[in-house]
Amino acid sequence: MFSLGLTSLLVRRNLIFVLMSLEVMLNAAGLAFVVAGSRWHQADGQVMFLFILAVAAAEVSVGLALVLQIYRRCKSLDVDELSEMRG
Amino acid sequence: MELAFYIAGAMAVMSTILMLTRLNVVHALLYLIVSLLGVAVVFYTLGAPFVAALEVIIYAGAIMVLFVFVVMMLNLGAPAAGIEKQWLTPGIWTGPVLLAAILITEVVYLVRIGASGASTGAVDPKQVGMVLFGPYLIGVEVASMLLLAGVVGAYHLGYRKVEKPEIQHDADTNERRAAAGGDLVLAGTDQPARTP
Q1: Which of B34, B51, B71, B72 to mutate to test the interface with A (most CBs of A within 10 A)?
Q2: DSSP H or E run through B144
Q3: pTM for the complete prediction?
Q4: Facing residue for B158 by CB, picked from A56, A65, A79
Q5: SS in 3 state form for chain A?
Q6: Lowest mean pLDDT among A41-45, A59-63, B180-184, B192-196
Q7: What CA–CA distance (Å, rounded) separates B164 from B173?
Q8: Counting beta carbons within 10 angstroms of the beta carbon of residue B168, is it exposed (0 to 12), middle (13 to 18) or buried (19 or more)?
Q9: Which residues contact B66 (CB under 8 A, 6 or more apart)?
Q10: How many whole angstroms from its chain centre is CA B99?
Q11: pLDDT: is A41 or B52 the higher one?
Q12: φ and ψ at residue B183, rounded to 5 degrees
């Protein structure tokens, strides 16, 4: 039920919104893992959630640095890119 | 217990949908935080309090702070104070505050009755730790390498901006910001002003 609303998130053109929707999708995957782990009484689901957490943290740090770079560059190069990024 | 689970799930889905439909990044961030808190409450009702705490600390704490910092860096400016005063009108923060209040009453109720996933399969943190450092030891090492790569990559991407002096766009002055009434000047509004 949750991932249904999540896969449709990527329609936004704003780069920050794209990153946020990536966050939500990773979160939904982790939620599915934890639910499955608690359904079958296994701890593996929570371990997988920890890995997803690490992946999300690394991805967000690199992605936000990239967003800063793109913003800085597009402000000096292309105005249409900037208007697109404002969303 | 079941009811709390469904309420928290509905909160998470609803705030995610509301996050999607916001036009402003900061409002969307507020709803995203509420969504993450809702997912944390779902974890708690599922009998995974350790993961719920991690969710609140890392997602709603650290990652959201990163987002907020980047949003702040993207629109710096002197008239930001006026914009901020305009943003603090009650219509904006009542939505997230309402959803968060529902979530926190639910958490207080759950803690009061002392239920933590007794109906479903509860997995305690000790079990998680045993599995994590048992069969998944390689995975832990790989995750640490990934985090190291993330740190180095973010540092590299953030460092290169310091070397080059920024080119001052003529739409990026405080006068233009004040004229446009916002932090970011709408692209294209300065076209007649520029003489290429």
Answers
A1: B51
A2: helix B137-163
A3: 0.69
A4: A65
A5: CHHHHHHHHHHCCCHHHHHHHHHHHHHHHHHHHHHHHHHCCCCHHHHHHHHHHHHHHHHHHHHHHHHHHHHHHHHHHCHHHHHHHHC
A6: B192-196
A7: 19
A8: exposed
A9: A60, A61, A64
A10: 15
A11: B52
A12: -70, -45
The answer, yes or no, to whether residue B28 has pLDDT greater than 50, is yes
Band (B116; pLDDT cuts 50, 70, 90):
low
d(CA B122, CA B119): 8
Put simply, the answer to whether A68 touches B161 (Cβ < 8 Å) is: yes
Distance from the Cα of A22 to chain B's closest Cα (Å) equals 12
Pick from B50, B66, B143: CB nearest A64: B66
Neighboring chain A residues of B165 at a CB cutoff of 8 Å: none
Q: Which pLDDT does position B105 carry in this prediction? A: 79
A16, A55, A66 member nearest B146 (Cβ): A55
Share of chain A above pLDDT 90, in %: 0
Q: Nearest Cα to B120, choosing from B47, B51, B49?
A: B47
pLDDT in tens, B56-97: 888 888 888 888 887 777 665 545 556 666 666 666 677 777
Q: Which two tokens stand for residue B110?
A: 């759950």
Mean pLDDT computed over every residue of chain B: 72
Taking a contact as any Cβ pair under 8 Å apart, which residues of chain B between 149 and 168 contact chain A?
149-151, 153-154, 157-158, 160-161, 166-167
Distances (CA, A) of A45 to A34, B2, B5, B46: 5, 20, 18, 12
Q: Least CB-CB distance to B70: which of A47, A68, A87?
A: A68
Percentage of chain A modeled with pLDDT above 70? 61
Please identify which residue in the block is written with the tokens 């449709």.
A8
For residue B187, name the pLDDT band (cuts at 50, 70, 90): low
